[in-house]
Specification:
It is a single chain. The chain has 171 residues and is mainly alpha-helical. It has a single domain, classed as Arc Repressor Mutant, subunit A (Orthogonal Bundle), CATH 1.10.10.10. The termini are close together. Strands 1-2 form a two-stranded antiparallel ribbon.
Length: 171
């Protein structure tokens, strides 16, 4: 994996919020249910996204999380750097040190051009694009047949977890 589980969950959360047709905050319980992310971990990731300026949070009975800026202005690279740190896209494939080109690992000649292409892709892919692309994915993959999914009563479509998960795992 090129990024952490926290980053994966952050992308899933942002895409889920961007794909919803509701205006205003969405509760952590509803988001946890539709994304299938553990609520405590979702809240931790969401607070990081609030600090980074991607989300706004509000307290109270009608509180929750909402996008702080347009999803078309949030790139995947922005999210990766916010969650995994500014050098996240310069990692050595072996995790030895940031790949600045001075010290070479055995895979450097192969990995470095690939890493640059991946970074370019992530810099040009937005949360909005991912949210739009999940609409064309099937509601549930064949391997999930019989897996009952709860849906939130706030606009999330049945199967949204599978759509977002498939989209994020493709990154």
């Amino acid at each position: 994996m090129l990024y952490s589980t926290s980053t994966k969950y952050a992308i899933i959360l942002l895409v889920e919020l961007a794909a919803r047709k509701v205006v205003g905050p969405v509760g952590a319980s509803d988001l946890s249910r539709t994304t299938r992310l553990p609520r405590h971990f979702l809240s931790k990731v969401a607070q990081n996204l609030v600090k980074s300026g991607f989300l706004r949070s509000s307290k109270g009975r009608k509180g929750g999380y909402e996008l702080a800026r347009a999803p078309s202005r949030i790139t995947i690279a922005d999210v990766v750097r916010a969650v995994d740190g500014p050098d996240a896209l310069r990692k050595c494939i072996f995790g030895l040190f940031p790949c600045a080109g001075e010290r070479h690992c055995p895979l450097h000649p192969t990995w470095n051009p690939l890493r640059r292409q991946i970074a370019k892709f992530l810099k040009h892919t937005t949360i909005s694009q991912l949210a739009r692309s999940i609409v064309s994915l099937p509601m549930k993959p064949s391997w999930a047949e019989g897996d009952e999914e709860e849906t939130a009563d706030c606009g999330a479509s049945e199967g949204s977890f599978y759509r977002v998960e498939a989209c994020v795992c493709a990154l």
